[in-house]
Amino acid sequence: MLKNSLNVIIIAVAVIISSYLFSNAFQNRNKSNDTISVTGSGKKDFVSDLIVWSGSFSKKSMTLKDAYAALDSDREKIKSYLSGKGIAPNEMVFSAVNFNKDFETTYNENGTTRQQIFSGFTLTQSVSIQSKEVNKIEELSRQSSELINSGVEFYSTPPEYYYTKLAELKIKMIAEATKDASIRAKSIAENADASLGNLKKSDMGVFQITGQNSSEDFSYGGSFNTQSKNKTANITVRLVYQVN
Question: Beta strand pairing status for 113-131 and 50-61?
Fold first, then answer.
């Protein structure tokens, strides 16, 4: 009799404890779901403070020696031209010379290859300039066709624009995006007659740099525009708050 009563008491206590633990777990589960997720954004327009511009030139001759001599002559003309535009010698970076053996292919009447005839050596070299004088180099890139008048076959490439204070800019934008997300979260909570609790999670979105007033699309992995001098940086931050 006593043994049976003791078993009943033990079972009753176990049921009460189990019920309490289950109820507490259920409440905590619901509590963990009482969160709000918001996304804030930061945007900043800025002007590039570094420019990289390059161009290439080439010469062709039947002998390698003559091709090198002609290329050397063009290189000196380019150095003289750039110096006259205010470019210091240490700002001019010339690449290694690249050369190719050229052949002309002749064909038979049926379209098959008859023979390949050597037509000379083509030597090519490039020069690049990196400078913080963005406007000056930008103007120089437009005027470089003047080299053609001196007999140099110079092919200019579009300048590339960069910003040397990108790390500092990114930190400021993260702070701006975080503040924006926090304001959004508080507004949503207030309108729902609730209050924000602790910050549960934060994630930073992709950092994007596009040309100002352009139609560039954002990239999943982040875009980094180098064609525009005037740029716009965008970043997003996602915050998850506990809601009370």
Answer: antiparallel
For the segment 133-144, the average pLDDT, to the nearest whole number, is: 94
Determine the average pLDDT of the residues in 75-97: 95
Is-contact 162 226, C-beta < 8 A? yes
**Is-contact 234 42, C-beta < 8 A?**
yes
| 130 pLDDT more than 90 | yes
Q: Which residues, in sequence order, are bridge partners of residue 100?
A: 122
| Position with higher pLDDT, 31 vs 169 | 169
Distances (CA, A) of 225 to 128, 132, 209: 19, 18, 6
Residue 59 CA to chain centroid, in angstroms? 36
What CA–CA distance (Å, rounded) separates 205 from 234?
10
Tell which residue, 233, 239, 230, has the closest CA to residue 167.
233
Q: Which pLDDT value is given to residue 226?
A: 93
Contacts of 145 (CB under 8 A, 6+ apart): 154, 156
* Three-state DSSP state, 163: coil
Check residue 165 and give its pLDDT. Answer: 95
DSSP structure string for 180-228: HHHHHHHHHHHHTT--EEEEEEEEE---EEEETT--PPP-TT--B--S-
> Which spans in the chain are helix H?
2-33, 64-84, 134-143, 166-191
The single residue listed with the structure tokens 């570094």 is 50
pLDDT for residue 33: 63
